[in-house]
Inverse folding.
């Protein structure tokens, strides 16, 4: 049964129930007109009315149930209402926006206080403020994109685009965007692809860009010294591996990394804060594109010399075009 | 790499009604410091619409013959001008299908971008998109790649210059170029490979697999290592310096090699 006939079933059910209700309500008048002067027919009409009402209600109920179940099946186990969803988003968004803003305002207020006190600001302070703004700008930029993608993801009917995409160019663009940030944080960010002439893939370029951006952003937050992005391919899929040498994610937390709202404060990974939204978005987008996002991590265990690291591996089909029949 | 040679005086046509904004001014400034010549399309009149920019842009295409175009998608406050940039793009490409165009979009993703991509895919042009919040450095990098192939000579900082066409490496001293004779053959190939990766993108490393074709013998990794060491010694001798393990050509965690700016 398709959605259209389910809707018709639901409407028919409601109509039958309505007729039943009408029969009950109008039973005195119908009974009166069938046998003028006698009340005998009123009761049977009312009974028939109730029967029709119950029947209609059952049909309508089935219609509603099937539609609801089907919608649930389509949207996974998301049974939350739209207002709950938006509330979640805005909570996280507000939390995320607050942090970079606080850092900028902190520097700004220090400078302002000095200005009020002495009438001038040191060049050093101005430079610090500028650095802070520059440092936080990418966070804002990513957040704006993330919220837009989130709203997009709620639309279950939207499909991933399929276009010829230069995957190496996308990785290069992301690397270019994050190289200055990495340098600022004292990190070395490198990328490469094998084979060097990577060629085109068929998929959703903007989704790919967004997933890799979130992975690299995440890695750059936690790395101690190095971030690596590697692009490789097999016969049927291509892999983007984002590696960082941060303190790692404890095994018990690995399963929750892609949960919405999961933040590393909950884990032993780092005291630095992160959105808890980026990885959720990355995995949701990946799923929509028919791919997989995996995480492996070696957590630091307190030893002096640790070989700790975290690897996110994104695998997507090389050719996501629908098969011609 | 802020030398004039990067842009080589190439003209960039800038078509954006917000060209007076601080954000655009920083892009224009960056283009100039990197040796490009930005030409801003600025029609005159009281109530400018996207059409005015279109006319002026197409006129400037003819008169200025730019190497690339920087184009905004959205023009003005009018709803009809929401995607005016796309119609301008189409007209530009109709006239010169090889013209590289870098488009500014407010958001690089979403329906807005999809419309832009669809419009650009219909024409076989070299068109790329960039977020308007991107840093000026990013814009210049993207533009540079869009314009195309690496230049014939690539500078490594202010010390060396590689001339791929003439298969030569020079050391630059007081504005004078002196040939470094020792660097030839495979060593030169390796250096060129590393230099073009650096030119394309700062973070790109050249994996061993790509470099090992320039080495021979049983243990190609080892012979590659020897060649790299020799390269560093030769380059160092030319400037009377000794390049350490983390200078000039570095081995990145046993993945491959990367050329880094040696500094002055």
């Amino acid at each position: 049964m398709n959605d259209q006939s389910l809707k018709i079933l639901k409407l028919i059910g409601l109509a039958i129930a309505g007729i039943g209700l009408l029969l009950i309500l109008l039973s005195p008048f119908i009974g009166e007109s069938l046998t003028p002067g006698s009340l005998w027919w009123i009761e049977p009409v009312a009974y028939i009315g109730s029967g029709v009402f119950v029947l209609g209600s059952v049909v309508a109920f089935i219609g509603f149930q099937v539609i609801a179940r089907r919608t649930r099946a389509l949207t996974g186990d998301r049974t939350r209402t739209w207002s709950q969803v938006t509330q979640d988003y805005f909570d996280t968004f507000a939390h995320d926006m607050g942090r970079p803003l606080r850092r900028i305002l902190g520097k700004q207020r220090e400078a302002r206080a000095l200005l009020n006190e002495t009438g001038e600001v040191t060049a050093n302070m101005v430079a610090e403020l500028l650095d802070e703004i520059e440092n936080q700008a990418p966070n804002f930029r990513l957040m704006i994109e993330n919220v837009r993608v989130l709203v997009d993801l709620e639309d279950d009917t939207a499909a991933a685009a399929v276009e010829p995409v230069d995957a190496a160019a996308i990785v290069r663009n992301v690397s270019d965007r994050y190289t200055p940030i990495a340098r600022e944080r004292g990190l070395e960010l490198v990328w490469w692809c094998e084979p060097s002439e990577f060629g085109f893939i068929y998929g959703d370029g903007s989704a790919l860009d967004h997933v890799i951006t979130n992975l690299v952003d995440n890695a750059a937050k936690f790395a101690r010294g190095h971030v690596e992005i590697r692009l490789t391919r097999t016969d049927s899929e291509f892999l983007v591996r984002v590696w960082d040498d941060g303190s790692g994610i404890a095994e018990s937390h690995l399963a929750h990394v892609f949960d919405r709202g999961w933040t590393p404060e909950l884990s032993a990974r780092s005291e630095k804060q992160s959105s808890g939204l980026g990885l959720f978005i990355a995995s949701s987008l990946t799923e929509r594109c028919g791919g997989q996002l995996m995480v492996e991590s070696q957590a630091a265990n307190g030893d002096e010399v640790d070989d700790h690291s975290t690897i996110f591996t994104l695998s997507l089909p090389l050719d996501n075009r629908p098969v011609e029949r | 790499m802020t030398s004039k040679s990067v842009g080589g005086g190439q003209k960039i046509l800038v078509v954006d009604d917000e060209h007076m904004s601080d954000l655009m001014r920083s892009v224009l400034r960056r283009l100039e410091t990197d040796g490009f010549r930005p030409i801003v399309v600025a029609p005159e009149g009281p109530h400018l619409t996207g059409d005015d920019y279109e006319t002026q842009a197409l006129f400037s295409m003819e008169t200025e013959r730019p190497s690339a175009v920087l184009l905004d998608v959205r023009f003005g406050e009018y709803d009809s001008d929401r995607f005016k940039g796309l119609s301008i793009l189409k007209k530009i490409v109709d006239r010169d299908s090889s013209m590289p165009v870098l488009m500014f979009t407010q958001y690089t993703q979403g329906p807005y971008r999809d419309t832009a991509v669809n419009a650009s895919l219909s024409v076989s042009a070299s068109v790329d998109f960039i977020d308007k919040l991107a840093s000026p450095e990013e814009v210049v990098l993207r533009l540079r790649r869009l314009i195309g192939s690496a230049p014939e000579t690539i500078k490594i900082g202010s010390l060396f210059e590689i001339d791929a066409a003439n298969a030569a490496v020079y050391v630059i001293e007081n504005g004078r170029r002196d040939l470094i004779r020792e660097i030839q053959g495979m060593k030169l190939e390796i250096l060129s490979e590393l230099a073009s990766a650096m030119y394309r993108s700062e973070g790109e490393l050249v994996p061993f697999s790509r470099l090992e074709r320039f080495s021979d013998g049983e243990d190609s990794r080892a012979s590659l290592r020897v060649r790299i060491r020799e390269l560093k010694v030769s380059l160092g001798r030319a400037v009377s310096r000794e390049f350490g393990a983390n200078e000039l050509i570095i081995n990145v965690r046993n993945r491959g090699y990367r050329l880094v700016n040696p500094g002055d």
Summary: The mean pLDDT of chain B is 83.
